Amino acid sequence: MEMDSLPNGNNTAGTPISATATATANPAPPQSSNLPQLTESLKLEHQFLRVPFEHYKKTLRANHRAVEKEMSAVISGVTEAAAADLSPDDAVNHLNSLVCRLQGLKRKLEEGSRAEHLQAQKCRVRLDHLESADAENMSEWNNTRMKRILVDYMLRMSYYDTAVKLAKSSNLQDLVDIDVFQEAKKVIDALQNKDVAPALAWCADNKSRLKKSKSKMEFQLRLQEFIELVRAENNLRAITYARKYLAPWGATHMKELQRVIATLAFKRDTECSTYKVLFEAKQWDYLVDQFKQEFCKLYGMTLEPLLNIYLQAGLSALKTPYCYEDDCTKEDPLSQEAFRTLAMPLPYSKQHHSKLVCYITKELMDTENPPQVLPNGYVYSTKALEEMAKKNNGRIICPRTGLVCSYTELVKAYIS
Amino acid sequence: MELSTIKDAFDRVTKKQKLSCSKTQEAIDQIRQEIESVLDTLQSANNTDHELDYKTVLNELKASFLLIAPLSQMEGTQKELNVALTKYGKLLEKHFNPDISKAYRNIDIDRHTLNQIIANHFYHQGLFEIGDHFMSVVGEPESAAIMKFPFVEMYQILEAMQNQNLEPALNWASTNGDKLAQSGSDIVLKLHSMQFVKVLQNGSREEALHYARMHLSPFATSHMTDIQKLMGCLLWTGKLDRSPYHALLSPSNWDKLAEELKRQFCNLLGQSYNSPLSVTVAAGVQVLPPLLKFMNVMAGKKNEWQSMNQLPVPVELDREFQFHSIFVCPVSKEQATEDNPPMLMSCGHVLCKQSILKMSKNSTKVFKCPYCPFDIDAAQCKQLYF
After folding, report:
1. B134 and B76 share a domain?
2. Cα separations in angstroms, A231 against A227, A228, B137
3. Which InterPro entries match (chain B) (predicted)?
4. Dist CA B207 CA B198 (whole Å)
5. CB–CB contacts below 8 A, A to B
6. Which residue has the higher pLDDT, A209 or B44?
7. Which residues of chain B are within 8 Å of residue A342 when distances are taken between CB atoms?
8. Domain with B85 in it
């Protein structure tokens, strides 16, 4: 409540309400209108634009490929008809069916173009969102960013329902990649049920791009399928399978291939550690992890959740030796055990300029509010000390040592 | 950042996409028309019993397809689309940081700890339903209740205040009066003052006066000026909006009071006012750009980074992230430590102990302050505690 600005005939007596308020609480952080800093932070948003764009590109390619295929089919349909000896009725029927096909294709094209349009829209919404960030709405924008980062974390950890709930409740659907992760969810769910089919289908879908990045995802899936055949003692089928699906990888991955083939000799209950691990259930977890990595790479996402990246950087930035002292302020995240635990293996912050915070008011001590030294060497801000002197008839009591002195005994310290 | 360039590039992509789409439709229509016209010819030939060589007609159709070349027609626009797509992709890479995980240290983050932090964040923000859902999904519904409980009360109070109902807030303040007084907060007075103004606005002067006697008088000794102002309001009963005190009616007072209450409530809970997760992530956003720049320059030192004890680049954090006093010696550029504390020289300038020892040749010589013409005697320097 702002009462101090009111005239009441006793204005010179000071403003106790606001003074004690700042003494107990941190002042609201000043709105940062630091433009270069904002620009720098926007540059971190590559994934935010990249993922919907990759998705859009993928849809474009798939639609185009489907159209091309259908068109060639129709054209070769005519060529075949011309070559074959068809009765007049058959020829008419054949041509009619081709017309039907073309009509169907046109419908499909329209549907596809609608989907493309929606995805293009999403790309544009994100560009607009980045553009909308300015000094005035910073705290709200940052709040949204926090939620985006959390949704990203939950999607990657497979907490889909919570992610959807959070996105819906804050109306963030266009700013998060739930639809993209739905695709991953199907594959992951199947892998967790020891079914490689959807994963293989995904590999086939993205064959050329996976090949470009030298991914061996498909090989690993095939190896696992082979192991399952050996586990079931279906050795003959296993050998046929290996000839068909594993042999092509021989040129590049011979060692792994040989090791897995050797399981034919060792069987599922082997005690030989080299081969025993291949039969373990955690191989499936490994496949899930592997898939997640490939998936993220393909869509241009960071391999780690955004939350982990920002959190780690932030913890390092905030970590000082003082954070671990008992009187660390509650406002410092590192006063909390959970944050301290996470910061343990991380480096300390580094600063090139002195930044002094008044123990009493928690305000910055700078040229406007210079630090003053008590006879015992303890330092507080001028504001806090003036306030105290006013209340106690010029007496100063050091809040940390209990020393009592006079305001006139204080010495200004110059910090450069 | 050149967001407008990027947007233009994207507009180009969608334009090319539309072009490619309509070209494809055109091609489909063209082929269909060709087939349909052949069908018409065949049909009319049937009707007139005119002899027609099907083979020739079909071959003609085939030849016309070759002429139309629908696939190569589509190819042109598709190529243009691909060019636009590639260009946009490259622009993204150029203007943004394509891999922000470059400065990430590959260490396992304890999932349980992190999940606790996230849940606490949700409750701190008042997102109870999502917090509960999250906790049940990660399989820790038991600890959810303990974490949630205090925040539930806080948000109930805040919600009531949104409807200008101070009852729950006053109840909370009276139960926690001692603790609030101990921490030096005057939120109790602020709440009562607000309630007083509310009573005065709705009710009679009598009632307001009664309220003031009951609840404001205990603050007489410590907050006389404030109470004087409030008493002044009594003179303007019914026309407070035209009084010198009209600022007391401003709706923003309610927001300020709510913020202050949240601060005090969190303080009593031993929690921070801002969600610690938000604070840390926001600090991360500030420190990542210089860190990534360093990583790009120091690509060869990747291994060193994994074991560094201190960030390799200095960070400039905003005031809101400054929780502790950091003293950097202006001579040695080192951060002060317990073994190397800041010392006040007789001229008022401050250096670290090591620097003073060095300049005074282990306290054997008088030296000149690097910032002013004063002669300094090391023995007269005093250790500072920030």
Report:
1. no
2. 6, 5, 33
3. CRA_dom, CTLH/CRA, CTLH_C, Fyv10_fam, LisH, Rmd5_dRing, ZF_RING_GID, Znf-RING_euk
4. 11
5. 429
6. A209
7. 109-110, 113-114, 117
8. 4-95
Distance from CA of B172 to the nearest CA of A (A): 19
How is residue B280 written in tokens?
Answer: 């840390």
The partner residue sitting opposite A17, judged by closest CB among B59, B223, B321, is B223
CB of A191 closer than 8 Å to CB of A287:
yes
Largest CA distance in chain B: 127
What is each CA distance from B112 to A82, B118, B176, B271, in whole angstroms?
Answer: 70, 10, 33, 20
Contacts of residue B167, defined as CB under 8 A and 6 or more positions apart, other chains included, come to B160
Instruction: Give DSSP secondary structure letters for B126-178.
Output: T-HHHHHHHHHHTT-HHHHHHHHHHHHHHHHHHHHHHTT--HHHHHHHHHTHH
How far apart (Å, rounded) are the C-alpha atoms in residues B52 and B45? 7
Residue B1's pLDDT band, with cuts at 50, 70 and 90, is low
Cα separation, B326 vs B149, in Å, equals 37
Residue with tokens 């289908």: A201
Q: Say if residue B147 is in the same domain as residue B239.
A: yes
Residue B159: inside a domain: yes
Q: Smallest CA–CA separation between B182 and chain A, in Å?
A: 10
Which one of B71, B223, B323 has the shortest CB-CB distance to A16?
B223
Say yes or no: B63 and B128 in one domain.
Answer: no
Tell me whether A147 touches chain B (CB under 8 Å).
no
B78 and B131 inside one domain: no
Nearest to A7 among B103, B224, B244 (CB): B244
Q: Tell me how crowded residue B83 is: count the other CB atoms within 10 A of its CB.
A: 13
- B103 within a domain of the structure (yes/no): no
Q: Measured between alpha carbons, how far is A210 from A200 in angstroms, rounded to an integer? A: 12
Mark yes or no for CB contact A302/B100 under 8 Å: yes
* B191 and B155 co-located in one domain: yes
B123 with B212, same domain: the answer is yes
Tell me, yes or no, whether B69 and B176 share the same domain: no
Question: Domain for residue B319, yes or no?
Answer: no
- Residue-level pLDDT at B307: 82
Tell me the nearest-neighbour CA distance from B154 into chain A, angstroms. 17
Tell me the residue ranges of DSSP E strands in chain B.
342-344, 350-352, 367-368, 375-376, 382-383
ipTM of the complex: 0.88
Q: Does the distance separating the beta carbons of B350 and A415 come in below 8 Å?
A: yes
DSSP calls for A287-325: HHHHHHHHHHHHTT--SS-HHHHHHHHHHHHH--GGGGS
> A125 touching B, CB under 8 A?
no
Residue B169 lies in a domain: yes
Rounded to an integer, the average pLDDT of A146-170 is 96
Lowest-pLDDT range of A289-293, A314-318, B143-147, B329-333? B143-147
CA distances from A303 to A147, A160, A286, A380 (A): 19, 18, 15, 46
Q: Supply the mean pLDDT for chain B.
A: 89
The answer to whether residue B100 neighbours chain A at the CB level (below 8 Å) is yes
For chain A positions 276-305, those within 8 Å of chain B (CB to CB) are 300, 302-304
Closest chain B CA to residue A69: B71
Strand, helix or coil at B78?
helix
